[in-house]
């Protein structure tokens, strides 16, 4: 009964989503308040129905109801409990249901927290949101029904893909979906603004928390996915420029640009067109990502099953929403009122450059991702566009962007003084140059790592400079620091922290150039050098897990005769799926890591192993956490602000002295 | 097979009462959903139009600026500029014409009617098309506790396997499930079960031989060294154990020791009781060994060809078989051979086509059709 109730709730949610998209929309066009007000309760009820449906599927997974095809195909009675829950979204049907659940959840949040919104804006936005929900519910019911049944039911399931049997699955997809879906809310508001022709600072204020939430979730989701790939794939890499990874990076880049653009809109009513365009772009790229991953165009661990029917369906959704939004944009954008004016050298001007550079990076990633697919579809030729292309093209854009970031922070709104801003960054430049000298002296090569690392240092110092100077400027009383800090808007603190976070990640990336890799056949009880450390296999032992068997090597790590710790890299074999996966052994030493993955064992007792020493590697993910923290600070800033042309502090300082 | 057809097991079906119950639940859910739409339509409310909302926003902004100024967060000149800017925005909003927002009874009624008809119709329509209201939940634990169905072998095995997790020392259990596991394609599990049975119940020739046979099957018919050891252990316990002799003969054949194989098979036939079931198989192996030398053995010759040529030869054989069956389709064995061949070559579409053709050609011959169907099901 529970399973079928969930199935019916899903069908009912579809009907309600249709009604939610039609009735309030008509109300908004005819200026009928009762019809517009239908949006709120139907969005909330729709969420409750999808939640009921999702719970029913989760129940079926937990109790191993093998009359549900989705459970047969992705579960096993002996699967650990946590993976029975996270396994619900570890497959195509379930993950689409999670997508819609998050979508409905965000819609319900909009409905609940929109008291200050005009009825029309809310009605239009929730109507667009309802249409997106309806499209995906239809997709689920017609092509990917998680409630398909089988009778007589088999007695055992086929288990979950071993790579997905990992705590990462519990965190990575929900975060990513929260990010994608958060952008769908922004998209709905953008469409609403285009439909009604009204867009102003109040609009930007409404959209701001959604942009930030989506961006934070996506940042964390991508970082989590990258760390997961790092420790399970056993290649020591954390980013492979795989189309599936790019699929999440593209909306992140557009979303980052959107975040900055929306800040300008809120404070200065400028960059309206940019903001609308980026709102559409961020969600369009999320949809594109969903299409690439879910259609089976790509084969990877993410595309659980390939089915051309699904691909065509998602493509239709993609074309409908992106095409519709862009058409609306083309018709309406010209008619929007012009916003606040600003000089080229100003905070706004710097953010325009930021938008441009981020858009170019984003376009590069899109081209790099789609070109090989298009080429293969047309000529059948397979090419792989990987790290050399992306690093080669993106570095020359990303590094100048990193140089500009602190400068933009220093520029005041409306009109600025470039030399004054550069003056305020003296310390950052100085420390950056010193870092260059130190890195060059201690590592020498590769040059790209040395340069990137020093830019990263400059970015960290420069990002925090603004904050530091605000607090300490002409400070007479040390005790006043805290008071000063509490006077700095949280959003400015957030910006400083997030920029510093980018620097931290950049430093981690730069340091990959100084890592050591060795692929060898290791004999037991013999020490092997990896960078400044020595690794030794103490013993190789088989072990039985709940639904897998594994062979693990116990390795000890030494430095100059002192033992630092043990790791247990393992190779697991999952009986039901007859699949193997590796489990890397990782020891974090300071900010760096020792990483070992094992492969085949040989008759002579040796064991193939990949050993890495990765200095500062954890900074890559710590940086992402810092970025998210910055976003959270900014999100916590609930106050209304207005950006004004402000004479620089340096100028004011001189004035006060006279 | 996904289906909406009647359910096989009686106890899996809902009683009439529960079937009515589930539709009452569906109706309640639908009612709640429709009410969500009707409530705002029935209530008369005052609209918060864009102008009001925006004015409130800009007024708030000015309040914030004054607040910041009072707290010392803004310099007076800056506050003045900000206030001017906010006031300018406020004025601009005030100058905009207000939209007339009203509420029309007729429209509300139309929307309500739409909701009452449309929502249940869509939901029920989709559900009737996709749902299985007649199927109840089947949690595994509950199914295992239910009285076993005597014809449901899979269920019985699942129960024993479950029992073995809690009682890993029950050697009998392993011995019972092992042959079933082997037959259903879970060879590695079967090997483990046979090994456990051997360990727990003590060694016998039959247990060693069964383990060896399972290993051989998992190795796709190759009598691998570990299997050979098992068969030798079996003979250590019972020197006349025919099955062990047979597999050791096979092992000799596979490693190219033709004479040794002939010797083993000959001895096996000599010692066999006249009606031994394995006699036929051994004799045919022996004939094959004697009649053609290793170089003339078509299998052997094929195996010695380079990969590409071998594929070509096999393809030719399969094509000839297909051509023959297309003309003369009454040959069940031929069809089965063809379907298997396509599967081995991973040509699944051709295999499916062959199954279809076979069904057409053999229509009327029930036993033949059953065999084809069994094979077809086997792969799915």
Walk me through the topology.
The complex is a heterodimer of chains A (658) and B (380).
Chain A: H1 2-30, H2 33-36, H3 39-62, H4 69-74, H5 81-86, H6 92-112, H7 119-143, H8 167-196, H9 201-232, H10 243-268, H11 272-294, H12 308-332, H13 347-379, H14 387-410, H15 418-424, H16 426-442, H17 447-472, H18 480-487, H19 490-511, E1 516-522, E2 527-530, E3 533-544, E4 549-559, E5 562-567, E6 570-574, E7 579-583, E8 585-589, E9 592-601, E10 607-614, H20 619-636, H21 649-657
Helix pairs in contact in A: 1-3, 1-7, 3-6, 6-7, 6-8, 7-8, 7-12, 8-9, 8-11, 9-10, 9-20, 10-11, 10-13, 11-12, 13-14, 14-17, 14-19, 16-17, 17-18, 17-19, 19-20
Chain B: H1 16-42, H2 50-71, H3 76-95, H4 105-130, H5 140-145, H6 153-166, H7 171-183, H8 187-201, H9 205-218, H10 225-237, H11 242-254, H12 258-271, H13 279-291, H14 298-304, H15 307-327, H16 332-344, H17 348-361, H18 366-379
Structural account:
The complex is a heterodimer of chains A (658) and B (380). Chain A has 658 residues and is of the alpha+beta class. Chain A has 3 domains: 166-334 and 343-412, no CATH class; 425-513 and 619-657, no CATH class; 516-614. Chain A is 63% helix and 11% strand. Chain A has 21 helices and 10 strands. In chain A, a hairpin with a 4-residue loop joins strand 3 and strand 4 (549-559). In chain A, helix 9 packs antiparallel against helix 20 (619-636). Chain A is globular, with a radius of gyration of 27 Å. The N and C termini of chain A lie far apart (82 Å). Residues 646-658 of chain A have low confidence and may be disordered. Chain B is mainly α. Helices cover 73% and strands 0% of the residues of chain B. Chain B is built from 18 helices and no strands. Chain B has helices at residues 16-42, 50-71, 76-95, 105-130, 140-145, 153-166, 171-183, 187-201, 205-218, 225-237, 242-254, 258-271, 279-291, 298-304, 307-327, 332-344, 348-361, 366-379. The longest helix of chain B is centred in the first third of the chain and has 27 residues, at 16-42. The radius of gyration of chain B is 39 Å and the shape is elongated. Mean pLDDT of chain B is 80; it is low at 1-12. At the A-B interface, helix 1, helix 2, helix 3, helix 7 and helix 9 of A face helix 1, helix 2, helix 3, helix 4 and helix 5 of B.
């Amino acid at each position: 009964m529970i399973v079928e109730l969930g199935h019916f709730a899903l069908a009912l949610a579809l009907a309600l989503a249709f009604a939610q998209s039609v009735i309030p929309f008509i109300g908004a066009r005819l200026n009928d308040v009762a019809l517009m007000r239908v949006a709120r309760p139907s969005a909330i009820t729709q969420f409750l129905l999808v939640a009921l449906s999702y719970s029913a599927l989760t129940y079926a997974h937990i109790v191993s109801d093998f009359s549900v095809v989705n459970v047969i195909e992705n579960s096993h009675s002996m699967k650990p409990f946590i993976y029975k829950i996270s396994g619900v979204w570890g497959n195509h049907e379930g993950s689409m249901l999670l997508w819609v659940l998050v979508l409905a959840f965000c819609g319900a949040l909009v409905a609940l927290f929109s008291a200050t919104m005009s009825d029309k804006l809310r009605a239009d936005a929730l109507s667009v949101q309802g249409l997106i929900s309806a499209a995906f519910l239809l997709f689920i019911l017609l092509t990917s029904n998680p409630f398909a049944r089988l009778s007589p039911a088999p007695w055992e399931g086929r288990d979950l893909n071993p790579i997905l049997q990992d705590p990462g699955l519990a965190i990575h997809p929900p975060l990513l979906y929260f990010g994608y879906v958060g952008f769908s809310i922004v998209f709905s508001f953008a469409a609403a603004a285009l439909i009604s022709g009204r867009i102003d600072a109040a609009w930007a204020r409404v959209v701001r928390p959604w942009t930030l939430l989506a961006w934070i979730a996506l940042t964390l989701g991508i970082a989590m996915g990258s760390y997961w790939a790092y420790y399970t794939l056993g290649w020591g890499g954390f980013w492979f420029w795989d189309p599936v990874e790019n699929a999440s990076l593209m909306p992140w880049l557009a979303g980052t640009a959107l975040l900055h653009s929306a800040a300008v809109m809120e404070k200065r009513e400028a960059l309206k067109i940019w903001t609308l365009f980026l709102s559409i772009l961020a969600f369009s790229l999320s949809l594109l990502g969903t299409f690439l991953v879910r259609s089976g165009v790509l084969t990877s661990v993410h595309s659980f099953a390939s089915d051309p029917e699904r691909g065509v369906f998602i493509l239709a959704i993609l074309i409908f929403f992106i095409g519709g939004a862009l058409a609306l944009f083309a018709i309406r954008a010209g008619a929007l009122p012009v916003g606040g004016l600003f000089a080229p050298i100003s905070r706004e001007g710097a953010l325009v450059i930021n938008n441009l550079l981020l858009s170019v990076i984003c376009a590069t990633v899109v081209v790099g991702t789609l070109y090989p697919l298009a080429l293969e579809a047309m000529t059948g030729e397979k090419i792989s566009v990987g790290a050399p292309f992306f690093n080669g093209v993106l570095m020359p854009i990303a590094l100048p962007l990193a140089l500009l970031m602190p400068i933009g922070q220093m520029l005041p709104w409306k009109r600025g003084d470039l030399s004054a801003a550069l003056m305020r960054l003296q310390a950052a430049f100085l420390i950056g140059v010193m870092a260059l000298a130190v890195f060059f002296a201690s590592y020498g090569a590769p040059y790209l790592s040395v340069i990137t690392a020093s830019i990263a240092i400059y970015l960290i110092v420069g990002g925090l400079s603004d904050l530091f100077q605000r607090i300490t400027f002409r400070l007479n009383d040390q005790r006043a620091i805290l008071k000063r800090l509490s006077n700095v808007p949280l959003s400015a603190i957030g910006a400083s922290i997030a920029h510093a976070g980018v620097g931290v990640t950049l430093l981690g990336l730069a340091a990959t150039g100084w890592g050591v890799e060795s692929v060898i056949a290791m004999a037991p009880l013999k020490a092997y050098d990896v960078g400044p450390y020595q690794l030794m296999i103490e013993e190789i032992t088989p072990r039985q897990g709940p639904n897998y068997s594994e062979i693990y090597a116990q390795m000890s790590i030494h430095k100059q005769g002192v033992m630092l710790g043990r790791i247990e890299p393992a190779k697991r074999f999952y009986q039901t799926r007859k699949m193997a996966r590796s489990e890397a052994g990782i020891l974090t030493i300071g900010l760096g890591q020792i990483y070992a993955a094992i492969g085949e064992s040989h008759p002579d007792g040796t064991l193939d192993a990949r050993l890495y020493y990765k200095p500062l590697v954890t900074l890559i993910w710590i940086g992402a956490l810092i970025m998210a923290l910055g976003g959270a600070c900014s999100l916590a800033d609930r106050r209304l602000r207005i950006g004004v042309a402000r004479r620089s502090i340096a100028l004011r300082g001189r004035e006060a002295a006279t | 097979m996904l289906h909406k057809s009647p359910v096989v097991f009686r106890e899996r079906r809902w009683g009439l009462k529960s079937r009515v119950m589930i539709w009452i639940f569906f109706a309640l859910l639908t009612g709640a959903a429709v009410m969500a739409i009707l409530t705002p339509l029935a209530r008369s409310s005052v609209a918060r139009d864009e102008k009001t909302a925006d004015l409130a926003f800009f007024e708030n902004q000015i309040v914030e600026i004054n607040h910041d100024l009072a707290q010392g967060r803004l310099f007076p000149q800056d506050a003045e500029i900000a206030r001017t800017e906010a006031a300018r925005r406020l004025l601009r909003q005030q100058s905009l014409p207000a939209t007339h927002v009203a509420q029309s009874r007729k429209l509300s009624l139309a929307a309500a009617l739409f909701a009452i008809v449309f929502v249940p119709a869509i939901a029920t329509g989709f559900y009737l098309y996709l749902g299985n209201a007649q199927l109840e939940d089947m949690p595994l634990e509950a199914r295992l506790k239910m009285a076993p169905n005597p014809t449901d072998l899979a269920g019985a095995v699942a129960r024993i396997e479950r029992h073995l997790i809690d009682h890993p020392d029950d050697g009998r259990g392993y011995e019972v499930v092992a042959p079933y596991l082997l037959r259903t394609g879970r060879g590695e599990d079967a090997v483990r079960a046979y090994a456990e049975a051997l360990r727990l119940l003590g060694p016998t020739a039959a247990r060693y031989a069964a383990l060896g046979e399972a290993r051989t099957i998992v190795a796709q018919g190759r009598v691998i060294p570990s299997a050979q050891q098992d068969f030798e252990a079996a003979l250590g316990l019972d020197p006349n154990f025919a099955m062990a002799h047979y597999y050791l003969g096979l092992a000799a054949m596979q490693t190219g020791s033709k004479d040794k194989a002939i010797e083993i098979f000959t001895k096996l036939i000599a010692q066999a009781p006249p009606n031994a079931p394995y006699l036929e198989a051994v004799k045919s192996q022996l004939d094959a060994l004697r009649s053609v030398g290793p170089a003339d053995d078509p299998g052997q010759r094929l195996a010695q060809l380079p990969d590409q040529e071998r594929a070509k030869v096999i393809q030719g054989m399969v094509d000839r078989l297909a051509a023959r069956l297309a003309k003369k389709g009454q040959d069940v064995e031929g069809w089965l051979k063809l379907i298997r061949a396509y599967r081995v070559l991973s040509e699944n579409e051709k295999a499916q086509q062959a199954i279809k053709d076979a069904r057409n050609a053999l229509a009327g011959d029930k036993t033949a059709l059953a065999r084809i169907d069994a094979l077809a099901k086997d792969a799915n």
